[in-house]
Amino acid sequence: MTPIREGGVQTVPTQPFEGQRPGTSGLRKKTRVFMQPGYLENFVQSVFDAVRTDAADGFGAETLVVGGDGRYYNREAVQTIIRMAAANGFGRLLVGRGGILSTPAVSAVIRRRGAFGGLVLSASHNPGGIDEDFGIKYNTRNGGPAPESVTERIYAGTQSIERYLTVEHPDVDLERLGSVRVGGTEVAVIDPLEDYTAVMEGLFDFERLRAYFASGHRMLFDAMSAVTGPYATQIIEGRLGAPAGTVLNGTPLPDFGGHHPDPNLVHAAELVSRMSGKDAPDFGAACDGDGDRNLILGRDFFVSPGDSLAVIAEHAKDCIPGYREGLAGVARSMPTSTAVDRVADALGIKCYETPTGWKFFGNLLDAGLATMCGEESFGTGSNHVREKDGLWAVLCWLSILAVTGKSVEEVVREHWRKFGRSYYQRHDYEGLDAAAAAEMMTELSGSLSNLTGQPLAGSRVERADEFGYTDPVDGSTTSRQGVRIFLEDGSRAVLRLSGTGTAGATLRIYIERYRDDAGASDIEEALGSLKQGVRELLRLRERFGTDEPTVVT
Ligand code: G16
């Protein structure tokens, strides 16, 4: 099939690929899947077709932001998008230098520069490389991930697509700041750090944070050879004066140095070991591939994401200038621990419970109902952008440490003394047979009404349901967002299949038990019976040959 050329624009005939439905956060697949001729092009064209009617002057008066986390295939994908965006008639493209923009930075650029939307190239915390993962996500004018109404339109487009548009044009030099023209489109290569750093400066007291480091406090920030390296080096070492060497693995690499850029206790093992022992620094942190997740550590101390959100919400007003007016409300995804709910109660504000996926926070933030939100998957953020933001969370913690003068562990223990503690774990079972996992979930959903009153983990099931959500702002509904099992003793288990994997299925089991014991219990003791009870309920060993999770966070 030969392309048709008209006014410099080529119309290239194509056919649909199966499976281009965006998941929890965009389309994620093996890199080689994306490298098939036409695969990326079909998806990008379907995005443009889905949103064209929302644009002024058929895109001619609109700006599109493009950038990614630097993983393998990032640069090639950026060049493809530049040609396609020009062919589709965008007035202007803003591209991060080197094709680099962290996910929160894309959001910041869209919002500060009044762009129409953005394409983010990332598979987040999944490994990178030709045999690993790649991904693409569309963000809308508010800077946030496209809501389901838009992603479903995109998906419908991918199923019936017959052509995509491109122009013939040599690659744009992504290293050189400034503008060039591609067809009728201005392509501006921008500093990927500028907008984001300005947003951080507007929220945090950089002088106070400089004083923290000047007085001898030490931290380690692990960028995991991913996108936050340049951001952290500029802000933490550059602006805040932390000594050189504070940022580890600060150069983004296409394969993330062969590691999973996933900031948890398993994959950030080097940081975890350097944060142990009496000579360890005061504060440790890490971010993921595209810079939206965070891990917070004290000396020999791990802060769970649910506790981190609760602690930041508790201290925001007193410790961070950007929130000195207080919080309008908070929000958390349904499987996230209920620690922040208790802070919201104490502050007299509302806590919203949403399905998993940052896109569900967008309306709450836009409408001013929530100021901060967070998820158990190491994501925390606020209304400063419409993505979760790893480095922002790190600066929140630095502010809390600087203002309170306490250690990470002291801050968390004080929180537990005041509010009690949600003992919480997530158990992931990766690489399961997808059909068997789907069948298990169907069986479970069908048997929920029989569960009520059954003994489980030394207690009884009080109720069990499938979580559904009605957006309080636009009334849109989402159903089947995970099974919830509540026990009479106040603990709960949540079960759902991940929407971000690229091979097989990943089962996530989230278990939580609240105790008002100042955090004195051993977590294994607190959660042991619940963990075992859920494994037996699901008959994991029988179905999958093992009931041991691959990752526990
Ligand atoms: C994405 C979403 C998050 C979600 C996470 C895990 O994060 O943005 O909202 O919590 O995936 O989703 P799942 O449990 O379906 O795998 P990221 O950092 O991967 O973009």
How does this structure look, described?
The protein has a 7-stranded mixed sheet with strand order 3-7-6-4-5-10-9, sandwiched between helices. It has a 7-stranded antiparallel sheet with strand order 21-22-25-26-27-20-28. A 5-stranded mixed sheet has the order 12-11-13-14-15. The protein has 3 domains: 4-191, Alpha-D-Glucose-1,6-Bisphosphate, subunit A, domain 3 (Alpha-D-Glucose-1,6-Bisphosphate, Chain A, domain 3, 3-Layer(aba) Sandwich), CATH 3.40.120; 196-419, Alpha-D-Glucose-1,6-Bisphosphate, subunit A, domain 3 (Alpha-D-Glucose-1,6-Bisphosphate, Chain A, domain 3, 3-Layer(aba) Sandwich); 421-552, TATA-Binding Protein. A hairpin with a 7-residue loop joins strand 26 and strand 27. It is globular. By secondary structure, the chain is an alpha+beta fold. It binds 1,6-di-O-phosphono-alpha-D-glucopyranose (G16). 1,6-di-O-phosphono-alpha-D-glucopyranose (G16) binds at residues 24-25, 124-125, 292-293, 356-358, 375, 377, 379, 498-500, 508.
